[in-house]
Specification:
Blueprint lengths: L7 E5 L10 H16 L4 E3 L22 E8 L3 H9 L4 E9 L5 H4 L3 E7 L20 E5 L13 H14 L3 E4 L15 H8 L4 E4 L2 H9 L4 E5 L6 H8 L5 E3 L5 H11 L2 H13 L9 H7 L1
Parallel strand pairs: 1-2, 1-3, 3-4, 4-5, 6-7, 6-8, 8-9, 9-10
């Protein structure tokens, strides 16, 4: 394949409106793109509009503009892939890094060549994601939200806070890690001990939380929390941030992307040093338990 081979359209499950898009699929795509760029082959990528609204999408492209179609990664089955064969019948069609469940399936049989990853009777080959170009490290941000706390009744802004924070994270260049302070000994998706949760938290770069203990446990391990009080007028999250002398606090009434951007930049910069300093100071600070001995002595 050389630069004289005409234009190529790269497709995959990431191209279909209802197709699943995985990190492995996109890395496999980048492996193929890097190969085409190195060989001077002009190409486009067809994206699902739900993942890349800017396109181009399969509906946008004109099949006549392409001489080749490449399907990258994933299993070869189903009507969506069969439709590609019909619509791009004039193109030379190749599948690469794919799983062949049934060679007789029209979705698989329609390709002129299949450079398979695995399948019945085939020797397994390396997945394309293994040799994809290196990607830059992104900040890892924990997300601890609560939809509960109904005791605050009409002052609850939990739903609005969750909507704003998650929409902001979707547009941020961070790797979100959803965590839960609730422990469960039977549910393997939740931590069963405080030590497990603290071990997860200390590996993060920052935490965004509307939970009091999201704030407290972040400071305990020296990871800067961005605390949002989900109760109108402020409640226990605000009180605890003041008790800890922690500045990264937002109220539900003044929560927006600009404020979140500001505190994220701070948390990933000087905020880390401040969180580590707070961890040391708070480890020996007085708390209400210190007064227990006085109560017992007076009784």
């Amino acid at each position: 394949m050389t630069g004289d081979d005409g234009r190529t359209l790269l497709t995959g499950w990431f191209s279909f409106l209802d197709g699943e898009i995985t990190a492995g699929d996109v890395l496999a795509l980048e492996r193929v793109r890097a190969l085409l760029v190195a060989r001077g082959v002009p190409h486009d990528v067809a994206w699902s509009p739900r993942f890349e609204p800017g396109g181009p999408t399969l509906d946008d492209v004109d099949p006549a503009d392409y001489d080749r179609l490449v399907f990258v990664c994933g299993p070869l089955h189903g009507p969506d892939i069969a439709e590609l064969h019909r619509r791009f019948a004039h193109c030379r069609r190749v599948a690469v890094g794919t799983s062949v469940l049934d060679p007789a399936d029209p979705a698989a049989a329609g390709f002129h060549a299949v450079l398979a990853r695995d399948g019945a009777g085939l020797a397994p080959a390396l997945d394309l994601a293994l040799r994809a170009p290196r990607v830059r490290r992104e900040p890892v941000v924990g997300l601890l939200l609560t939809e509960g706390q109904h005791e605050y009744r009409g002052r609850r802004r939990h739903t609005e806070v969750a909507r704003t924070v998650t929409a902001w994270l979707a547009d941020s260049r961070v790797a979100p890690v959803v965590l839960e302070t609730r422990l469960d000994a039977a549910d393997g998706r939740l931590c069963r001990s405080p030590g497990q949760l603290l071990s997860a938290l200390e590996r993060l770069d920052a935490v965004v939380t509307d939970r009091l203990h999201g704030l407290v446990l972040g400071l305990r391990v020296g990871v800067p929390p961005i605390a949002v009080d989900p109760v109108a007028g402020g409640a226990k999250v605000t009180a605890q941030a003041r008790a800890c002398d922690w500045p990264a606090l937002l109220s539900a009434e003044h929560l927006d992307r600009t404020a979140l951007d500001h505190w994220l930049a701070w948390a990933l910069g000087p905020g880390r040093r401040e969180a580590l300093r707070r961890r040391v100071l708070l480890a020996t600070a007085r708390d209400p338990a210190n007064a227990l001995a006085d109560l017992w002595h007076s009784s």
